[in-house]
Amino acid sequence: MHFFSTYSARLSFASALSVIFVAIVLTFAFQTMPAFAETENIDDVPSDLQKRVEETSAALNEITVKVKELEQRISENTARIAELEEKIPVQREKSASAMRVIYKMNRDGYSLINAVLESGSFKEFLDRLSYMGYIHNRSIQEMLQLSSMQDELKAVQAELEQEREEALEEQKVAQEAVEEAMAVRQQAIEAAAAAAAQEAAEQAAREAEEHEQPEGDASSSGAVSASAPAVDPVNSGNTERGAFIAEWAPRIDAYMAGYPLAGYGSVFAAAAWDYGVDPRFSPAISWVESSKGLYCYRSYNAWGWGGISWSSWEEAIDAHVRGLARGYGYTVSEAGAKKYCPPNWEHWYNTVCAEMGKI
């Protein structure tokens, strides 16, 4: 019995070691395995329409930042004006009192001769002289302080008026930029929708041909089965950037929960807006290629993207979304799948579509 107990214990220990060894090997393999994708063309030259999308988005972002800076300065100057307007009446009273002191000193003829005559000792003379100088200087300082505060008030008021005029002009320019950006984005989305409709029609035609073939003579066993809408209702091209990010960031974060890319929803959403891409596109690919950043075969490369590395998720996300916009279009497509993952494009396409539907 002792022999069998010892043998069983050793067998259990060996089994445990084997399990641990296999787990380590599998973990290492997953972490170093190449991605499914074989894409190398990661930063195509943008089309004319894509250039306009990026340029209008960048211009709008720049104007938005400038307007916010102006609004901040207006707020600070408004607060300073209120502070000065509150302090000036008090300072005006101090200045008036100081003027009365100086007038009284001059009227009474209290001078250096008076200080000498009324002093009982040289020390007392110095004390009187020092006091006279202090009173006089302090009175002058109170009056100068009033003048300085009044001058500052006028300058701040003038600056505020200029900033308000500039802000109004920038807001006008921003509104024009918004309208232009929306128009360009809408063109891009409509073009993507048209391409998707054509692709769907071609797929339907292929399926019809397959149904007409004799049983067992189908030309393809990996037919595309899933589909994702080319245009999501939230991304109809009529949404302001901040609202767009506020809408999509939590949805992407919920999708990424528990994985390394969790918490980067706003980065994905901002990049999607700036480059005019379906905000679900890049997050979904990260699942197919790396389990949402869990098994990256290059540093911060969760997308099997050109065999390169990045220094941060922010940099990586922006680069990937930009590459999708320039080389693969607004959203997932069969043509894009064949380009992104040639060896197994049907599975890649179906999986990306399915994951996009979860976001």
Structure description:
With 359 residues, the protein is an all-alpha fold. The protein has a domain at 60-183. Helix content is 72%, strand content 0%. It is built from ten helices and no strands. It has helices at 2-32, 48-107, 112-118, 122-212, 241-256, 265-275, 281-290, 313-327, 334-340, 345-356. The protein starts with a helix and ends with a helix.
What is the secondary structure topology, with strand pairs?
Layout: H1 2-32, H2 48-107, H3 112-118, H4 122-212, H5 241-256, H6 265-275, H7 281-290, H8 313-327, H9 334-340, H10 345-356
Helix pairs in contact: 2-4, 3-4, 5-6, 6-8, 7-10, 9-10
Question: Any descriptors?
Answer:
10 helices, disordered N terminus, 0% strand, 72% helix, elongated
Task: Please provide a brief summary of the model.
This protein has 359 residues and is mostly helical.
| Rg measurement, Å | 37 Å
Separation, N- and C-terminal Cα atoms = 59 Å
Backbone shape: elongated
| Average predicted confidence as pLDDT | 74
Strand percent estimate: under 5%
Q: Quaternary arrangement of the chains shown?
A: single chain
Q: Helical percent range?
A: over 70%
Number of helices: 10
Q: Characterize the main sheet.
A: none
Order of helices and strands: HHHHHHHHHH
Would you tell me the structural class of the helices and strands? mainly alpha
Poorly predicted residue ranges? 1-11, 19-35, 216-222
